[in-house]
Amino acid sequence: MLGHHYTRTFLETAVASMNAGCNLELSYGMRNNVFMHIPQALAMGNITLQMLRDRVRPLFYTRMRLGEFDPPAMNPYSTLDLSVVQSPEHRSLSLEAAVKSFVLLKNVRGTLPLRAQDLRGQRLAVVGPFADNPRVLFGDYAPVPEPQYIYTPRRGLETLAANVSVAAGCREPQCQRYSRADVVGAAGAADVVVVCLGTGIDVETEGKDRSDLSLPGHQLELLQDAVQ
User: Fold this and answer.
1) In this structure, are residues 186 and 127 in contact, taking their beta carbons and an 8 Å threshold?
2) Residues 6+ apart with CB under 8 A from 64
3) Which of 132, 205, 140 is nearest to 170 (CA)?
4) Model pLDDT, residue 7
5) How far apart (Å, rounded) are the C-alpha atoms in residues 2 and 100?
6) Which of 131, 187, 199, 227 is close enough to 203 for a disulfide, judged by CB 3.0 to 4.6 Å?
7) pTM to 2 decimals?
8) Which residue intervals define the domain Glycoside hydrolase family 3 C-terminal in the entry (predicted)?
9) Pick the CATH number of 106-226 from 3.40.50.620, 3.20.20.20, 3.40.50.360, 3.40.50.1700
């Protein structure tokens, strides 16, 4: 609220937040937190002790129900390791969730889905900065997975019975330096071309918005070259 000029000081922010019913502050990494001004607000009479208790009670009730104060031995999740998290059952469920979350905007001539039996002996080109770059595949606040469990478009498509070639065109989503020859060469020699474009956290993230919805850098040129 302070950053948006709704309040002028942390003290005003603490009072306004408590009056609004807030009982939890995202303050990681800050030395001077809003909640540290609650005692001052209480001493000045801006908030009451009963109001403070009303805010604290549901917060700690929820934390207790979540087991935050239990001994580690009582937490059933503390013994889970990658053999459980990356079990075949969980990986299969993740794949199902991914497939069902795709949004297909246009499917000319029923091109999709690509089927392994239709690609045997075919040449498949994967182009674009997202073709085989694991680092750019994860959004803001995403966990860092084990590398062996990351499937880039290239790695996924290589599981099909096809001859797969890759041409990123540009190494990062900003796509400031574009190698047109690589993309044209790969696309021109292929029977099927998969173009992998987008933004990623290098282009947009919390506190870093784009001014328009255009593809970054030379990505539109890359797409046009692949289509041509």
Assistant:
1) yes
2) none
3) 132
4) 94
5) 41
6) 199
7) 0.73
8) 103-226
9) 3.40.50.1700
